[in-house]
Amino acid sequence: MNPSNTPGTTTGVERKNSTFDRLHKWFDHAGVHYFSFVNTTDKRGEIKPVDIDWDTLKLCLKGHTKIIALGGFASTALGRLNIEHYTLPHPSPRNRKFNDAAYEPMVMEDLRRYVTK
């Protein structure tokens, strides 16, 4: 949705980050070896649709065959652009849905089905 406030997360320097670790685990399970992502905005903190960089978002989506939204905010943004996409829960460790041990395996399997259809 938006960049982390943690220093070093937007510099391209590889580091441990449980959100990205979870995302890589999901895509590995789905057999996806290469993926890219774009934040809806560079603004930090609470964001609103007015903060979305619509032009950059549209430009970054060109040429991709599968579009996946990480969370409801991203899904709403893609919906406003009439972009067909699949919505995953946001992989952040702050997402309380992952307190249920059965939830993540279900998410991973649903993603695998989406990318292989």
Provide an overview of this structure.
It contains four helices and two strands. By secondary structure, the protein is mainly alpha-helical. It has a domain of 65 residues. It has a two-stranded parallel ribbon.
H/E element string?
A: HHEHEH
Largest beta sheet, briefly?
Answer: 2 strands, parallel
Shape: globular
Overall mean confidence score, pLDDT: 87
N→C terminal distance? 26 Å
The secondary-structure class comes to mainly alpha
Number of strands: 2
Q: How do the strands of the widest beta sheet line up side by side?
A: 1-2
Strand proportion: 5-15%
How much helicity do the residues have? 25-40%
Rg calc: 14 Å
Low-pLDDT residue intervals, each spanning 5 or more residues: none
Q: What count of helical segments does DSSP give? A: 4
What is the element layout, followed by pairings?
Layout: H1 18-30, H2 54-61, E1 68-70, H3 72-80, E2 86-88, H4 103-116
Parallel strand pairs: 1-2
Helix pairs in contact: 1-4
